[in-house]
Write a structure and sequence with these properties.
The structure holds 2 protein chains of 2 kinds. Chain A is about 30% helix and about 25% strand. Chain A is α+β, with helices and mostly antiparallel strands. Chain A has 5 helices and 12 strands. In chain A, the strands form 2 sheets. Chain A has a 6-stranded antiparallel beta barrel with strand order 1-2-5-4-3-12. In chain A, strands 6-7-8-11-10-9 form a 6-stranded antiparallel beta barrel. In chain A, a hairpin with a 5-residue loop joins strand 1 and strand 2. Among the domains of chain A are: about 60 residues, no CATH class; about 80 residues, Beta Barrel (Thrombin, subunit H), CATH 2.40.10. About 0% of the residues of chain A have low confidence. By secondary structure, chain B is mostly helical. In chain B, helix 1 runs parallel beside helix 3, helix 3 runs antiparallel to helix 4 and helix 4 runs antiparallel to helix 5. The two termini of chain B are about 20 Å apart. Chain B has one domain. The mean pLDDT of chain B is about 85. The chains are: A alpha+beta, B mainly alpha.
Chain lengths: ~280, ~170
């Protein structure tokens, strides 16, 4: 018994050190896991409010360029609206008054914290559970995809960026073909992501557009991602393609969060098949 | 009493300097200084290690909260806080009775430089390898360690130079 007490006396600093290091390691491992990263993240009220006040300050500096971007998007949406109106008026024999079957809802939010220089990057946005935002919803802006929501608190949400080594997103070639692959990031350049597992027979050219494939319940199909910037010469089965992003991931402010209203229905159906 | 208030203010100053300014520098795209480890360089030497270990853990974990990195900062900061006395013994040849009179300013600059470079390199290397969390891309880890250490040390020496002049 005395020896045990003596042991603790002698190594008390080392034991305290080990205890704290174990706590830190535990937090690191938890942070790498998508569903368990609840303890240390920037979606809590203290860090959230500080980041909000900081981004309020930096908003003024970037006001001009952001305004340009928003007005650009407005024009694009107006154009789309006009196109739809034209189509509807042409086909006037069908009057569909009961068409409320909306599949996606959009919520807008502002990024208050953005990482892009690490291997596992996250963003924080200023909307949370009070705005009906949950885990695993798509985050995009007018130029392309940004990430997937992960942790939510009352007023803030942490987003797993596409620049995260854990991120996997279904993507396809734009056009008539429906060849699809998985979008990952190799943590080297924040302007380039990699498209894995695209079939060998897919007709690829440099400059082709890559968009989301719509084969997951998170992203709707057809959201732009980037253009093909490098194709491997030996087009083998495990070849990957470099995709340069439309978004400048180091310069983001206004985003949209997309909620899939049919998600539970689709997931319950897919679960049934597995049993 | 006065000294502990000074330490707490210094702690808060370094924390907010790191999360508000230094984490957003991203020089050449990815190089950030981690100046908050100056807290460990300048914390007075004591026989009792508990306060330093505890404070360095809290400092690391608070920075982790802001930068979404799990416990990576806490782990690496705690490590150099624990090994600091060992390096003080190696470089400056101090015995425990010298600790209350020890000051970095009054030591020869060459020894201080070696001491700081060793601690900074250890901290940054642990930080970047844990942030990377795989055995791939190890060249990036080494390069990041080197660049960020140079950046941190330049800032630290500039900072101490400026505050010395004011007195």
């Amino acid at each position: 018994m005395q020896q045990i007490i003596y042991f603790f006396q002698k190594f008390k600093y080392f034991l305290f050190f080990l205890l704290l290091e174990c706590i830190a390691l535990f937090l690191i491992f938890n942070n790498l896991n998508f569903h368990k990263s609840k303890f240390v993240n920037s979606a809590n009220s203290i860090t959230g409010s500080l980041n909000t006040s900081l981004s309020n300050f930096s908003d003024y500096i970037e006001l001009k360029s952001k305004n340009e971007l928003l007005s650009e998007e407005n024009t694009k949406l107006r154009n789309q609206l006009e196109k739809n109106r034209f189509l509807l008026s042409k086909d006037s024999s069908i009057i569909d008054t009961a068409n409320y079957s909306q599949k996606y809802t959009f919520t807008h939010a502002k990024i208050i914290n953005n990482n892009y220089s690490k291997q596992f990057n996250f963003l924080t946005i200023d909307k949370g559970e009070s705005a009906k935002i949950n885990s695993e919803m798509a985050v995009i802006n007018s130029l392309g995809i940004i990430g997937i929501t992960e942790n939510t608190s009352e007023n803030y949400t942490r987003v797993q960026s596409i620049l995260n080594k854990n991120s996997k997103i279904n993507a396809r070639l734009k056009g008539n073909s429906t060849y699809f692959g998985t979008l990952k990031w190799n943590s080297e350049d924040y302007n380039t992501v990699q498209l894995h597992d695209i079939p060998r027979q897919a007709p690829l050219k440099i400059g082709d557009t890559i968009e989301t494939g719509g084969k997951s319940t998170i992203f709707p199909e057809g959201i732009p991602i980037g253009t093909v910037s490098k194709i491997n010469k030996r087009n083998t089965a495990n070849s990957k393609i470099d995709v340069s992003l439309f978004n400048d991931m180091s310069n983001l402010r206004n985003v949209y969060i997309i909620k899939n209203l049919h998600k539970i229905e689709i997931q319950s159906l897919e679960k049934m098949g597995n049993e | 009493m006065n000294k502990s208030i000074y330490q707490i203010l210094f702690f808060l100053f370094l924390l907010f300097l790191q999360v508000i300014v230094l984490n957003n520098i991203n020089f050449l795209g990815y190089i950030n200084p981690y100046l908050y480890i100056a807290f460990i360089f300048l914390y007075p030497l004591e026989e009792n290690k508990f306060p330093l270990l505890f404070f360095s853990f809290i400092l690391g974990i608070s920075i982790d909260f802001f930068s979404d990195s799990g416990g990576v900062h806490a782990f690496s900061t705690l490590f150099i806080a624990y090994t600091r006395l060992f390096f003080v013994r190696i470089y400056f040849r101090k015995i425990p009775s010298d600790y209350p009179f020890f000051k970095l300013k009054s030591e020869p600059i060459g020894k201080v430089f070696n001491f700081l470079v060793t601690l900074t390199l250890i901290h940054h290397f642990i930080y970047f390898s844990l942030a990377n969390f795989s055995f791939q891309n190890f060249s990036i880890v080494f390069l990041n360690t080197l660049y960020s250490s140079v950046f941190t040390l330049i800032l630290f020496f500039l900072g101490t130079y400026i505050f010395k002049k004011n007195k």
